[in-house]
What we know:
- By secondary structure, the protein is α+β, with helices and mostly antiparallel strands.
- The chain has one domain (3-134): ph1033 like fold.
- 25% of the residues lie in helices and 35% in strands.
- A 6-stranded mixed β-sheet has the order 2-5-4-3-1-6.
- Strand 3 (48-53) and strand 4 form a beta hairpin.
- The model has no long low-confidence stretch (mean pLDDT 97).
Amino acid sequence: MAYWLFKSEPDVWSWEQQVARGAEGEPWTGVRNYQARNHMRAMAVGDLGFFYHSNIGKAVVGIVEVIAPVRPDPTTDDPRWDCVTVRALRPLPRPVSLGQIKADPRLAQMLLVTHSRLSVQPVTAGEWAVVCALGGL
Length: 137
């Protein structure tokens, strides 16, 4: 299993909207960055990801699971862009802010810190454990 981080602006697609989609989940559409797209191409069903509110809130707020493999993004006719489908698993008891992540030396190499603009990014097992602990899991 691999770990990921999915960034979404909560005024565009929020954790609450993701939760409301239930077991059927939601395609993670609209990614228009080659590196982020390639990360989705590397995902497997069962992988877990952090749901991160960007711009507003700037915090990891929940955990999602990849429930369908990569496929063409249905929001465009451009064959370069793909998406996976994710479903909400659980909220973090305590959201973990970007400030907390940046302040923790164990997370200094996390891509959220070093490549903050990337909308879909891998998370190491160690980083996953630290963020989960900070979030009360």
